[in-house]
Design goal:
Helices cover 47% and strands 0% of the residues. The protein has 169 residues and is an all-alpha fold. The relative contact order is 0.07.
Length: 169
């Protein structure tokens, strides 16, 4: 029997191509497999992420707990900020998700950005799984073009009423 789809193969060292449907099927059968997959996902983001997880494992820090916290940071801040924050924490030789978050916030503040909003958790799995992506609000500007002042409207001047700018009394 022929296979209906072709799976890609990766020959790179320490890299894997994963099919999301396969991961979900595995997690349905083995819910505890999520921490290992999450750890692998974080480690494959960049070399500094792999080194950071290795340092966490060497210390008396719960690797599963840290992985869950780091994965939440990754979801909230995005891959670019996350990898940068992990790299900064690794250089400082300070380990823990709280420090990684502080590094990401410092870098964002330096670029004039605020920290991303906290995700809203309702407890309803369906509602919590919804990913709302905000759109650019400037698109509304096209709906309401700016109106220029009417020609009959006067512009206020700095002179007091009754003052004549010509210098005559």
């Amino acid at each position: 029997m022929a296979k209906s789809s072709r799976d890609d193969r990766c020959w790179d060292r320490r890299r894997a191509i994963e099919e999301p449907a396969h991961i979900e099927a595995m997690l349905q059968k083995r819910p505890n497999g999520r921490s290992h997959k999450s750890r692998t996902h974080i480690a494959n983001l960049a070399p500094q992420c792999r080194a950071y997880l290795q340092e966490i494992a060497r210390r008396r820090i719960s690797l599963d707990s840290e992985t869950r916290k780091l994965h939440r940071l990754l979801d909230r801040y995005g891959q670019e900020d996350f990898v940068d924050g992990v790299g900064r924490a690794l250089v400082a030789r300070t380990f823990g998700a709280h420090y990684v978050r502080a590094c990401m916030d410092q870098a964002r503040f330096a670029r004039g950005l605020h920290e991303p909003p906290e995700p809203i958790v309702t407890g309803n799995a369906t509602a919590d799984a919804i990913n709302v992506v905000p759109h650019d609000l400037e698109s509304y500007d096209a709906l309401f073009p700016k109106q220029e002042a009417a020609p009959h409207e006067e512009v206020l001047s700095d002179s007091a009423p009754g003052d004549d700018e010509s210098g005559h009394d």
